[in-house]
Amino acid sequence: MKTSDRKAGEFIKNNSDQLAKEILITHSENKKKYKINMGDDNPGIYLNEVKFQLAYLSESLLYSAPELFFNALSWGKIFLPSVNVPSEGIEFMLRAMKETLKVKLPEEIKSSAVDFIEDAIKIVNDLPSQIPSFLNSKRKLYSESKKYLELLLVNNKSEANKLILHLVTKGTEIKDIYLEIFQPTQYELGRMWQMGMINVSQEHYCTAATQLIMAQLYPYIFKTKKTENVFVGTCVSGELHEIGIRMLSDFLELKGWNTFYLGANMPNDSIIQTIIDRKPDVIGISATMTFHVEKAERLIKAIRDTSECSNSKIIVGGYVFKLNDMLWSKIGADMYGEDLENAFKKVSDSVLTA
Prior knowledge:
The protein is α/β, with parallel strands linked by helices. The chain is 61% helix and 6% strand.
């Protein structure tokens, strides 16, 4: 990680609110100068998008990982049309951002941020404007996952629950229900929200319903014979996307691990105390949002600095780690789980090689 990149990232993070306002001014002046209407006549929506992109830019700079920023632009290019802002507005915003940061950033660090933005301008028009469905007709339980999602989208969690319990009584493995129904439908909900097909309240309702239905399966999960292996799973402070790490904890419990799932938005001190008390073989840390990577790094450092926790291995997971192959190692983790099945295998293998 380059020192100049990290300093630029810290400066932007510490001054993001003021920088966003300055970028909005530059953007408005450019619209008048070039007589362009980008469909962004609601300054509140535009300002929020700029803050969002600055958060991703700062984190990308902190870890010298431009892919994180490029992904955020890709997300915005797909999302903005759902709020009546043309996707072409992303490039116009980048140019306003570049102009502003060239003026506002200290001389010794401005080139780092400007280089990231210039690279983004070169690729932004080639970024996808659509996302294919995560429900693959070639996958096992495709029809069941499709029906399950349809029931949730019409607010019928009772029938969705019956569908899952019926599969279990028919002999479908709980592992398959997690991998073939819960995981892809969660991905699909995220895709639908990003594309404006559902609103955020629908996405939250469906996720909460899935968590409730998962809880109905616990009598089957917790009846397995226990080994001596211990796992502590948590999200970083402020991270509310908890279902992935919860699924991993359930998977391990199903295979006999003693798991301690701490959920979302857990303070670091409480996490470390649990680790001291439970002495886990493996600690799982989840961070989905790019601007939570630094929080994951701070948590890992706090764990490493606590002598009672030194024997535990750490696995990280979450969407952000898909974007850069080595991001997990940059923040001090021992391993990274690409998805539920991959994370389960790596955690299981880690105790065999210890």
